[in-house]
Amino acid sequence: MWNVKIQRFLQVIFIMITTSYAGLSSAHSAGAVMDPNGTVASFTGYALITCTSDESGTIPTDYLEASIKDTSAPVENLLTNLQLIKGDRAISISDPIAGDANPSPIVILQGGNGVYLILVNKTGAGVRSFEVDYHCKAANGVHTGTDIRVNQFQ
Amino acid sequence: MNTGYKLKFITASMIAAATTVVGHSAFAHTRLEVPIINEATRASNNVVVGHGCGSENGESRNVIGTSVVFPDGVDSTILVDGQPHAGALTDFVQNWGNQNQKVYSKAVFTFQGEKLDANGNVVGFWAGGGDTLPHDLAGYIPFRTGAVIIEPTSCAATVKFYVSIADICEITPTSGFNENTVNFWTHNNLGTPYDRVSTTDDGPASLTITRTSALPESCGGTGLAVEVKPSAAQINRDMPIKIDGAQIWPQ
Fold first, then answer.
1. What sign does the CA torsion over B116, B251, B77, B229 have?
2. Does the structure's ipTM exceed the value 0.85?
3. Distance in Å, alpha carbon of B153 to nearest chain A alpha carbon
């Protein structure tokens, strides 16, 4: 019994340690540092998010939702932004307060299954650490197939 | 991933090198379990390692690892109905790249990892170490193929990606590559050290995406067969196995 307790304790410790390294490893979030040298005002991240039907193949995607969280310390007039584009529709949002626990409001682009463009940028030169959360969803809010490919980060 | 990790992989190589068994198994090429997938569809898949390496005296050697590379579509060679295409892959596919994710499994090999491009997209993966794969058994190396979408305005009916694979039986430098140390399921004409020695280009596995959307009327009812092959530069860059930036094969 004692050995069992020790094993469980070690497992908890191991999980705690690994979790501290896994902040950005959930299936549909991504994080990185824009403009690491702090000199590129035009720094832009550009990726494709592919939305497909759910695993059963019967429930199609209705929309892509996303938010951005600036995890750097606040700098006056330096905000991070996110844009979603598909076909002739687009939407954007900014994280109004950097460094707090709250991401931007969630934005939704209703484009069905297919390939969405996602852009992240910022309002000026400066290092910005950020996280993007993105999910393809069916009309009833059920998660659908979500894949990402990064085209550019510079 | 550290020195111990690398040592275990290398140790497995030495054990496998010493464990030679007389007799050949059926010499099936290494291929994908699911070689044809409809567009916009995810699929669970496996690299199916068919057999070990053969030696000159009729012995076979166990496989200790495998290295898999998908064309990145950046500097790849594109053929349309067998003819070179000067344009980009995006002329035919909307979202190629980062499609094939390694599925964690210790069923065959203990260690594994993905190969990434400069933007962090997966362009291949490897598995190796731990138990060796007996030369006379098939080994399934699992991965998942994400949804690939054919450009709806194109005339592409199918897009075939050639998948380059090396089944390693002994860790050697490139100068040590031969039928006893590695099986190459790769192109025979790229001019890399990883080229398959063959009179015909029958080495690579393939992953074909089949169009399900209607062809534009302008296509005249006949779709195009698109093929995508990796560049020599990509094979040289992505075929080696690296752990934490340190190359462990070839060496």
1. negative
2. no
3. 13
